[in-house]
Design goal:
elongated; 159 residues; 4 helices; mainly alpha
Length: 159
């Protein structure tokens, strides 16, 4: 079990460094959205006007986040391209059997592999956040439409 323990320790060490980097970037761009969501979570009784304001606010913030999401996807593509170029260079500079050259090339580009994974994770996280913002906006719209329908029904029943 000593081997697995060391492997897990190494994974946690690498993960800790990359997670901190990813969390800082996600926080930088998503904290305005997170603040709106938190304010909705902390409000037990939202007025129709509160809901309308939240819909507009979240929609505008998701518009801005969509640009960041697309740029992060481009960064992920750039990281992948650089990794492939580095791999090809390292492979071509190696000598020996194909398997040996592949292993040497993979070892030589480990940092590029991690960079690619970091940007893949950022891109995926931004996409998920954006999708979830759209779901929250849709849920808020449903609540608003439901309330308006209930109000109309109440008015027609009193007439």
């Amino acid at each position: 079990m000593g081997d697995i323990t060391e492997a897990l320790k190494s994974v946690e060490e690498v993960y800790g460094g990359t997670k901190q980097f990813i969390d800082e970037i996600i926080s930088r761009y998503c904290s305005p959205i997170d603040e709106v969501i938190a304010s909705l979570e902390n409000s037990f009784e939202l007025s129709n006007e509160d809901i309308r304001k939240a819909i507009v606010d979240l929609s505008l913030k998701s518009y801005r986040l969509s640009d960041i999401k697309e740029r992060s996807a481009l960064k992920a593509e750039c990281a992948e391209t650089l990794r492939k170029m580095s791999y090809a260079t390292a492979f071509n500079l190696s000598t020996g059997a194909v398997a040996v050259r592949e292993n040497e090339a993979t070892n030589a580009i480990s940092e590029q592999l991690l960079a690619e994974k970091v940007y893949d994770s950022l891109s995926s996280t931004f996409k998920t956040k954006l999708d979830e913002v759209h779901r929250v906006v849709d849920a808020l719209k449903s609540v608003l439409v439901s309330r308006i329908s209930e109000e109309k029904l109440a008015v027609t029943q009193t007439i």
